[in-house]
Amino acid sequence: MSTSATLPGQHAAGTVSSTPETVQSVSQNAPVAPAALSYADRQLFKNGNQHRIIAGAIHYFRVHPEQWQDRIDRLVALGVNTLDTYVAWNFHQPHQDTAPDFTGWRDLGRFITLAGDAGLDVIVRPGPYICAEWDNGGFPSWATSNPDMVLRSSDPLFTAAIEKWFDHLIPVIEPLQARHGGPVIAVQIENEYGSYGDDKEYLRWNRTALQERGITEMLFTADGGTDYFLDGGSLPDTWATATLGSRGPEGDEVWERRRPGEPFFTVEFWNGWFDHWGEEHHTRSAVEASDEARKILDVGGSICLYMAHGGTNFGLTSGCNHDGTIQPTVTSYDSDAPIAEDGRLTEKFHAMRNAFFAADGREPSAIPAHLAAPAPVLPAASVALAQGTALLDVVRAAEPVSSIKPLSFEQLGLDRGLVHYSAKAVLPAGEATIRIRGLHDRALVWVDGEFAGILNDGTGADGLKLAGPGGMARLEILVENQGRINYGPRFGEGKGILDGVLINQRYVFHWEQRPVNLELPLDQLLTLGAGDAPAGAAPGEKHAGFFSGSFEVDAPADTYLALPGFGKGFVWLNGFLLGRHWEIGPQLTLYVPAPLLQEGRNTLTVLELERGGTHAELRREPELGVGGVTYVEDLG
User: Which residue windows does the record flag with biased composition (Polar residues) (predicted)?
Assistant: First the structure.
């Protein structure tokens, strides 16, 4: 595995953050060339010539860097002229005490340059809030954990943190602007702010922060395509763009009325949609999606497919929504995009391609043969997995921290992973109920080493019923962070037990908590509790905990990993944290890109939270779920 293939929290020891040599600040006294993009009378121009943006979104942080060039080549074959990408702050700076890293997988400058070398313009969306179904909307948890800070506002506590981040980020983007001969033609201010707040002072601050650091290309905001979203998220003297999935002509009418003179640009056209664990798989037909795209093109609008290629939420990077209860996003970010998670060119690819070529009056050219053919795939195989250290032994072995009330992930300095809480409690005789107030997100509960049940965000206050003789008992609660909320008013919420634990109406005090950072090097995790007898497992039972196995590969190629018989947990390949698995679906296989495999022996490790199986399977086709939901957005 390439040493560049590391995610936040998976840095090799001794990694030093740096900025590529190609990224250098320019003299503030240098003459400033005019921005590449301009507009007048609802017409967009590039370097003085009439222009239409036809773009596709690809996120560098969701694609293995050895596949960047391939996915960019496929985007070019789609017939677009522009690549669009967010920038995820927590991908570059997961820890406050280390400088942002722009090397290896995090080399944003290289990704932008590759797109430019392929003939594409680039739109950069630096946020700092990006949503994107990405953990915490792109923010490091340490940057949003101050309870006195007003998030996404002009609060000086918040803007000061962003200033420091922009001081590192913008010098990566600035030299790659079109005025320097680079591909960057536009930069976004914040992101869909009209869905969150109405602090126009903050939006103006964000715009100024970009300009003061040398951004001179076109700046723009992005919001839903109605008056309501424009009211909160747009600025009167900055280009406003739309995010929507249908009814483009109606959005265009809103722009003609509200934004006179501005060209209509759907900077996010939702031609597919993402999935949550436990819900149905989302699909959108190629015909329906391309017909809606044509409507935007027919009124003269510009368009960007979100996503053109979705990629994968490797590691623990997927976020959550919240609608009455937590809705964690699956590991795949395929999003039913034209370019599938594994790079395949789908029916939607060809439908969108035809629409794009027709809009420009071009005849579709031949697709290069190496792009038209699917990538090589490993032969199907079964991989035996042997039991290792039991789950309770693993989490009990972490270093304890004592407190009177339970501590949150943030108080423990833990971003992602698990926290094991333990305390002595007096249980009443007969029936008792264990309740968790402020549970975020999912708790496994044991009483005196016996598994008692599972509580979730939204059900923690309902509690678990117990019946017994009463007396002193050891209470253990293992809380999993299933991904930080990326959208809506609950953005920035903490994880863990945020209030307390009750036995009936009585609080339990005096706790030990053991944070388990799953983004540590795997060999460190495997030492936790190693050699102890399995805890909490009946004889012959496939207990929760670590499982491992290996398989041989003649030549690395893509594969799709399934875990039949396993319940819920985490998977590593050759020490790289692939992501989460969960039997409830809809996703039943994890995409394994060829660069993560190596010739010869490959190792597979699973940390199972519920129940283990006997083997893993390498399959030749992905299984992301049966398309049960057709996503159609209604602007409202």
Answer: 15-27
CATH code linked to domain 51-315+324-372: 3.20.20.80
The CATH homologous superfamily for domain 381-389+528-619 is Galactose-binding domain-like (2.60.120.260)
What value does the CA radius of gyration of the chain take, rounded to a whole number of Å? 25
C-alpha angle 5/82/592, rounded to 5°? 25
Q: Is-cis flag, bond preceding 499, omega within 30? A: no
User: CATH topology of 51-315+324-372 equal to that of 381-389+528-619?
Assistant: no
167 contacts 89 by C-beta, under 8 angstroms: no
Options 133, 268, 410, 608, the catalytic residue: 268
Determine the Cα–Cα distance for residues 47 and 265; give it in Å rounded to an integer: 18
398-516 topology per CATH: Jelly Rolls (2.60.120)
CA atoms within a 13 Å half-sphere pointing along the CA-CB vector of 479: 32
Asked if residue 594 lies in contact with residue 573, where contact means CB atoms within 8 angstroms, the answer is no
**CA atoms of 191 and 486, how far apart (whole Å):** 12
Q: Is 174 a catalytic residue?
A: no
Q: Domain-by-domain residue ranges, the chain?
A: 51-315+324-372, 381-389+528-619, 398-516
Q: Looking at 192, 292, 341, 608, which residue is catalytic?
A: 192
Residues facing 545 on adjacent strands: 390, 608
Paired tokens of 32? 């400033």
> Tens digits of per-residue pLDDT, 541-590?
468 999 999 999 999 999 999 999 999 999 999 999 999 999 999 999 99
pLDDT (tens digit per residue) in 308-352 = 999 999 999 999 999 989 999 999 999 999 999 999 999 999 999
Most distant CA pair in the chain: distance in Å?
83
Q: Is 472 exposed, middle or buried (0-12, 13-18, 19+ CB in 10 A)?
A: exposed
CA dist 454 and 478 (Å) reads: 10
Residue 236: partners with Cβ closer than 8 Å, 6 or more residues away: none
Q: Is 238 exposed, middle or buried (0-12, 13-18, 19+ CB in 10 A)?
A: middle
